[in-house]
Design brief:
Shape: elongated
Order of helices and strands: HEEHEEEEEEEHHHHHEE
CATH class of the largest domain: Mainly Alpha
Bound molecules: zinc ion
Number of strands: 11
Number of helices: 7
Number of domains: 2
Largest sheet: 5 strands, mixed
Radius of gyration: 20 Å
C-alpha cells in the first residue's frame, strides 16, 4: 500500500497536469468506488468545477475544487493516470474525469479497495487523522506525550492513522529499527530520550523515502528506489547491516513485522507479548 512518501511523490507529479483543470464530465465505471455522495449527485455537481491544487494529507490525495473537495485513497492497488483523450479507457479504470483540454484523469483500481469521496466538508474525514509527521507542529515532546497517553504496542499504534498520519508497514518497521525499539514495546513505557530518537527516526525514514521517490515493492506504484535502502523490511533471515544477526519476521496485529532481535532488544523497553 502506498504510504506517505509514495503519496507525496504521486501528488508532486500530478500537480503540473491537474492544477487549473476544469472538469467537463465524469464517468463512474464502478459505483463502489465512490464512498460519498450518490453517483447521480456526483456526476451532476462535479461538472464545471476547477481543480485548485493537489495536496496530500496522511495517505489521502486531496483535490480542492472550486466548490467541493475530491479525496482519493489508493489503498492496495489504486493509481491515478492522466491520459490524452485519444487513449482508450483501461480495464481497471473505475472513475474518469474528463477535462476541458485534451486530457482525462483515470482512477485505476484493480483490486477495488481504493475509494473516492466528493464532499463539501472534507474535514469530516481528514479531521480524524493524527498529526502530519513531517510538519513543524509535530514535535518530539508531542510524540512522547501521545505515547504516554496510549498504552498500546508501538507497532500497531504507529500504524493507527488517528495517532499519526501516513505511516504504513514499511516505514514503521524501518523507523523502529532505526530507533532501536522492539515492535512490541509498550508505548507508555517508552522513555523520553527513546521517544526523541523515535521521532527523529520517523522523520528520517519518511524524508529519505520522499527523496528516493518512495518504495517500488509489492504494489502498482513504480518509479521510486527506496527499496534499495531498506534496512529490515523484506529482509527476513538476511543479516542485519549493523550486527549481522538474521532479521526476524513476526506477526504483530495481523501485519508482517521485520526487526533485528539484537539491535531492537526487548529489554530496551518493556515488551508486552
Ligand atoms: Zn542488528
Amino acid at each position: 500500500m502506498p504510504e506517505l512518501p509514495e503519496v507525496e511523490t504521486i501528488v508532486n507529479r500530478l500537480q503540473a497536469d491537474l492544477i487549473g483543470r476544469k472538469i467537463e464530465s465524469a464517468d463512474l465505471l464502478w459505483e463502489g468506488t465512490l464512498s460519498t455522495p450518490e453517483p447521480a449527485h456526483f456526476k451532476k455537481n462535479i461538472v464545471g468545477q476547477y481543480i485548485s491544487t493537489v495536496k496530500r494529507r496522511g495517505k489521502y490525495i486531496v483535490l480542492p475544487l472550486s466548490v467541493d473537495t475530491l479525496l482519493i485513497h489508493l489503498r492496495m492497488s489504486g493509481d491515478i493516470l492522466v491520459r490524452g483523450k485519444d487513449e482508450p479507457i483501461h480495464k481497471h479504470d473505475r472513475l474518469v474525469l474528463y477535462f476541458e483540454n485534451e486530457h482525462y484523469l483515470a482512477f485505476s483500481n484493480m483490486r477495488k479497495f481504493g475509494r473516492v469521496w466528493f464532499t463539501p466538508t472534507p474535514e469530516d474525514i481528514l479531521g480524524k487523522l493524527g498529526p502530519e509527521p513531517l510538519d513543524d507542529s509535530f514535535t518530539a515532546k508531542m510524540l512522547y506525550e501521545k505515547l504516554k497517553r496510549h498504552k498500546r504496542q508501538i507497532k500497531p499504534l504507529l500504524l493507527d492513522q488517528r495517532f499519526i498520519a501516513g505511516m504504513g508497514n514499511i516505514y514503521t518497521d524501518e523507523a523502529l529499527y532505526l530507533a532501536g525499539l522492539h515492535p512490541l514495546a509498550k508505548s507508555d513505557l517508552i522513555e523520553r530520550h527513546q521517544a526523541q530518537i523515535l521521532w527523529r527516526s520517523i522523520r528520517k525514514v519518511l524524508t529519505e523515502g520522499i527523496k528516493r521517490n518512495g518504495t517500488s515493492i509489492d504494489w502498482i506504484y513504480r518509479g521510486g528506489d527506496f527499496q534499495n535502502y531498506l534496512q529490515v523490511y523484506g529482509r527476513k533471515n538476511k543479516p542485519c547491516f549493523k550486527c549481522g544477526t538474521p532479521i526476524q519476521k513476526i506477526k504483530v496485529g495481523q501485519r508482517g513485522t521485520h526487526f533485528c532481535p539484537q539491535c531492537q532488544r526487548r529489554e530496551f523497553a518493556h515488551v508486552e507479548t
